[in-house]
């Protein structure tokens, strides 16, 4: 295996809260994939701050992922084509959809993601490496 790319991002949750106030759910719907959207709604219904932290952490992780693959937010990388989900253990992982999933698989890549948050900030770190072993 070889490192393909590394990305990191820090997100100010107060900024995300202001965007949500201005744009409502449109911002979350544009940023979150289908499974993430369901988790966001569930967490926000239980406690608004938990929904905000979830949205901020996913925004940050997608920024990190886009940096690690070297595309930024250009096709085939889109907000909704990249989901940051959690295994039952709580460990986050990346699930890709559509053209982005095809692009990623074609290059035989895998992603590793970690997230952390505090009251006002969330931070993410993504390492993308190659699955292929060269002789």
Automatic annotation (TrEMBL):
Which one GO biological process term can you cite for this protein?
Answer: fatty acid biosynthetic process
Q: What class of enzyme is it?
A: transferase
Any one GO CC term of the record: cytoplasm
List the Pfam families.
Answer: ACPS (PF01648)
Cofactor(s) demanded: Mg(2+)
Enzyme Commission number(s) from the entry = 2.7.8.7
Which InterPro entries does this chain map to? Answer: 4-PPantetheinyl_Trfase_dom (IPR008278), 4-PPantetheinyl_Trfase_dom_sf (IPR037143), ACPS (IPR002582), Ppantetheine-prot_Trfase_dom (IPR004568)
Protein's cellular compartments: Cytoplasm
Look up the signal peptide feature and give its range: none
Keywords, A to Z?
Cytoplasm, Fatty acid biosynthesis, Fatty acid metabolism, Lipid biosynthesis, Lipid metabolism, Magnesium, Metal-binding, Transferase
Catalytic activity of the protein: apo-[ACP] + CoA = holo-[ACP] + adenosine 3',5'-bisphosphate + H(+)
* Family according to the record: Belongs to the P-Pant transferase superfamily. AcpS family.
Question: What this chain does, per the record?
Answer: Transfers the 4'-phosphopantetheine moiety from coenzyme A to a Ser of acyl-carrier-protein.
Q: Which NCBIfam families match?
A: acpS, pantethn_trn
Q: What name goes with this protein?
A: Holo-[acyl-carrier-protein] synthase
The lineage, from the top, is: Bacteria, Pseudomonadati, Pseudomonadota, Betaproteobacteria, Burkholderiales
